[in-house]
Amino acid sequence: MRGSFITLEGGEGVGKSTQARALAEALRALGLEVVTTREPGGSEGAEMIRALLLGGPEERWTAEAEALLFAAARADHVAKTIRPALERGAWVLCDRFLDSSLAYQGGAGGLGTDRVRAINLFGLGGTLPDRTLVLALSDGAERARARDNDAPDRIGGRPADYHDAVAAAFRGLAGEEPERIRCIDAHGAPEAVTERLMTALADLLPAQQITPG
Ligand SMILES: Nc1ncnc2c1ncn2[C@@H]1O[C@H](COP(=O)(O)OP(=O)(O)O)[C@@H](O)[C@H]1O
Ligand SMILES: [Mg+2]
């Protein structure tokens, strides 16, 4: 049986990577095989493209070239890492995926979500998330600044209005696909956030065996 494909989304510093680790532990405690991965990256070739995308000056890429590089990295990541894991029955937890491209390059970057979706679907071979958890936090930028010692990567360093547009785009995507995309309040202790995420996955989890007392 194919595993479930779960993606964690949201802006900078909202807790995606922290929650990817915690959620993997919680799912493993239920006896599931879990593969954690991240974007851009997650396969050998995609990690090379990650360095090209996140390093260097803002003007290194045009908006179109940047969107195509994300899509190219994603095509390799899906083919080499994600689809093989799902096919052997593992759950895949991915820190950022397609919706980040839609929100950043499509929404905030002005390319349009439909055009960015189209260039991505070309490379995905039909592999799409079963559930997408968008973490929503008012002070993610402050957490990201503290974590990065004020040295953000090429995309994190964009102006505040860009990141506000990213957050708005994620909300818009969630409104369009409420069955797949769930917005999760990311305020509070990490353990409380993990519980909210598990609740948003409850319908995908295998039925628990109840041992008669
Ligand atoms: N619930 C939380 N409360 C306080 N700090 C947190 C919480 N979750 C994550 N952090 C911290 O905030 C920073 C950003 O979290 P991170 O998981 O790296 O975010 P993202 O991957 O979304 O950019 C990190 O320094 C992390 O340790
Ligand atoms: Mg992260």
Automatic annotation (TrEMBL):
Stated name of the protein: Thymidylate kinase
GO molecular function list: ATP binding; dTMP kinase activity
Membership in a protein family: Belongs to the thymidylate kinase family.
Signal peptide region: none
Function text: Phosphorylation of dTMP to form dTDP in both de novo and salvage pathways of dTTP synthesis.
Binding, ATP: G10, G11, E12, G13, V14, G15, K16, S17
Superkingdom field: Bacteria
